[in-house]
Design goal:
Layout lengths: L4 H108 L5 H16 L1 E10 L4 E8 L9 E2 L3 H9 L3 E2 L16 E7 L2 E11 L8 H41 L6
Antiparallel strand pairs: 1-2, 1-6, 2-3, 4-5, 5-6
Helix pairs in contact: 1-2, 1-4, 2-4
């Protein structure tokens, strides 16, 4: 082999090796860049996935908040409906109670004017005072103009002798007779008065503006806790209707007696024996 040609071959071999090394380095760089790209792609995919999950989570949170708001709205509406139902129930009870009270007052008023029998009228007055008003001890008194005193005509829980012949100018009763206005004590309804002239409640019995007597109440039944509107209505009913019923029945008795006396006198004039 020629010695002059050997260096040229070596040079070409060296150049080839350099080219091969550059190719190898280029390949490594390419592989590294490719690997970096794969990592970058993986990072981007992960970030995208995380972003998608975050969006889903936000959507879920928004939906949950919407459901919670709707639930609170429904709960608020339910509370309002429940409150309205309670109000309606209370109003229904009040209306039913009022209707019952009106019915009792109607029955009481009807009974007072359903008879002219004096004893029957007094019995009805006593029943109203006991059963509808709840009085325990009381007395019904009429004015004796000649004696200027109040005379007991009916009572409950108290002897008629204890309230008989009370002067019309004495105590609370005298004030009620003079003023014509009913009296209600400031003391507790569960107290009991022992003074015949100073009852807890005193109702004037009036025909128009003319006082003919009083209903004096000295104590109430234990279940009575206070005065309701219907109680005051009953007091007003007794003040007018009871007075009229009592007065009318007394006039009827007197007229019956006078009629019987006149009839007997006429029979006597005719010479006919009376029966």
């Amino acid at each position: 082999m020629d010695k002059d040609k050997e260096p040229g071959i070596l040079k070409k071999a060296d150049e080839f090796l350099q080219i091969f090394k550059k190719g190898e380095e280029f390949t490594r760089n390419l592989l590294k860049e490719n690997e970096d790209l794969r990592f970058r792609i993986a990072e981007l995919e992960e970030a995208h996935a995380q972003g998608s999950n975050a969006a889903k989570i936000r959507n879920y949170e928004d939906h949950i908040k919407m459901l919670e708001d709707e639930r609170e709205s429904l709960k608020e509406r339910f509370r309002k409906v429940e409150t309205e139902n309670r109000d309606f129930a209370q109003k229904y009870v009040l209306v039913a109670e009022e209707n019952n009270n009106l019915a009792n007052m109607y029955v009481a008023s009807y009974q007072l004017h359903s008879t002219l029998d004096y004893e029957e009228v007094l019995k009805i007055v006593l029943e109203i005072i006991i059963n509808l008003i709840g009085a325990k001890k009381f007395s019904v008194m009429l004015i004796d103009k000649k004696l200027e005193k109040l005379e007991s005509i009916a009572s409950e829980g108290i002897g008629m002798d204890n309230t008989a012949k009370i002067p019309v100018d004495k105590g609370v009763i005298g004030e009620v007779v003079r003023e014509g206005k009913s009296y209600f004590s400031d003391e507790s309804i569960h107290t009991e008065s022992e003074d015949p002239a100073k009852p807890i409640v005193c109702i004037s019995l009036k025909i128009k503006e003319h006082v003919i007597g009083v209903i004096a109440i000295y104590s109430f039944l234990n279940h009575k806790t206070g005065f309701s509107n219907v109680d005051y209505e009953l007091f007003n009913l007794l003040a007018g209707h009871a007075a009229t019923a009592i007065f009318s029945s007394r006039l009827y008795i007197r007229s019956e007696r006078e009629f019987t006396t006149i009839q007997n006198f006429l029979e006597l004039l005719k010479g006919k024996p009376t029966q």
